[in-house]
């Protein structure tokens, strides 16, 4: 190859090299720009992802707050509804007790006079009989028809039965008036046993024997309790809720159970506290749900059988309103016991 051709070839190669270098520089710039764009987009993407995660966290937190608020509102609404129902019930019971009390007092007060008049008339008849041992045939016939001897003996028994009956009605009316303190809002010292007895009286019809079970026996083991400062009506509401649950448990117990029983025991724990324990011999509460029984709206009963608020309201009344304790102890097949502990003052 001659020198001219060599030089020409060298120039071409140098030119081609320059062109390649320029292309390489452009590619390098384009690569750098692309990396910069990718880095910027990755930053923006991470920022968007972070903002989305934060938004999801805030949304989840807000959703949880709204659910909690909704549950609290539902619970408050149910409590207000329950309180209104119990207040209305107290007013109705008080009105009925008042209406019954007046005629019963009238009857009871006059039975003693009627008894006295009957004894006087019977004494007069005996006196007539002593002076007229052989009365006219018409009188003798009437004596035989009305069975005078039986009337004399039975009239005294009837008056005595009427007296016992009116005394029983008066006792029931007194219990109804005690139970009607549902609408009492103030804190006052009350006889706990009187509240229990009044509540049992209200539930007496549910304790009687049915087609599916025998009579529920109530065993009362009362201790020597002092008067306790409490909201009497609200505490009565707790008693009726727990006793109703006990009766419901005995309703679904094995029909072969010969003696369904509720035991109510009261005692003084110390100088500051008293305890009311209510135990039944029902089916018991499964351990898996015992922790939930005081939650609002939780219920094991079928639809239409209850709101699931009885025990939740009872817990609120005992623990929050009275600063006490409400505990449940249960064994499947053996029964359930609720223990109410409240301060004496």
How would you sum up this structure, described in words?
It is a single chain. This protein has helices spanning 3-131, 137-146, 148-179, 192-202, 204-207, 232-251, 310-321; strands at residues 188-190, 217-221, 228-230, 261-268, 273-280, 325-331, 335-343. 63% of the residues lie in helices and 12% in strands. It is rod-shaped, with a radius of gyration of 43 Å. It has a domain at 188-345: Histidine kinase-like ATPase, C-terminal domain (Heat Shock Protein 90). The chain has 7 helices and 7 strands. A hairpin with a 4-residue loop joins strand 4 (261-268) and strand 5. The longest helix has 129 residues, at 3-131. It has 345 residues and is an alpha+beta fold. The strands form 2 sheets. A 5-stranded mixed sheet has the order 2-4-5-7-6. The mean pLDDT is 80.
CATH topology of the domain at 188-345: Heat Shock Protein 90
- Measured distance between first and last alpha carbons: 124 Å
Number of beta-strand segments: 7
Low-confidence stretches: none
How much β-strand is present in the residues?
Answer: 5-15%
The largest sheet has its strands arranged as 2-4-5-7-6
Class per helix and strand makeup: alpha+beta
CATH architecture classification of the domain at 188-345:
2-Layer Sandwich
**Overall spatial form:** rod-shaped
**DSSP helix count?**
7
Major sheet: 5 strands, mixed
CATH homologous superfamily label of the domain at 188-345: Histidine kinase-like ATPase, C-terminal domain
Helical content class: 55-70%
What is the radius of gyration? 43 Å
Return the average pLDDT rounded to an integer: 80
Helix and strand pattern: HHHEHHEEHEEHEE
Q: Any idea of the CATH class of the domain at 188-345?
A: Alpha Beta
